[in-house]
Amino acid sequence: xxxxxxxxxxxxxxxxxxxxxxxxxxxxxxxxxxxxxxxxxxxxxxxxxxxxxxxxxxxxxxxxxxxxxxx
Length: 71
Known about the structure:
This protein is mainly beta. Strands 1-2 form a two-stranded antiparallel ribbon. Strands 3-4 form a two-stranded antiparallel ribbon. It has a two-stranded antiparallel ribbon with strand order 5-6. Strand 3 and strand 4 form a beta hairpin. The radius of gyration is 15 Å and the shape is flat. The two termini are 30 Å apart.
């Protein structure tokens, strides 16, 4: 995970894939822990080992983590 272009945490992502053949749709959902992250905007990138002839990183998505609502 990157915040302001700087790495803040490595993730183990649990991918869930489901399909709806009738609508020709595939949904890909990723589940990961945001524990220890401060509220803000983040980018999730995938890194690829050097020497694999692939781009070194690829954007998977981004999210905004909101502060918890306290009563």
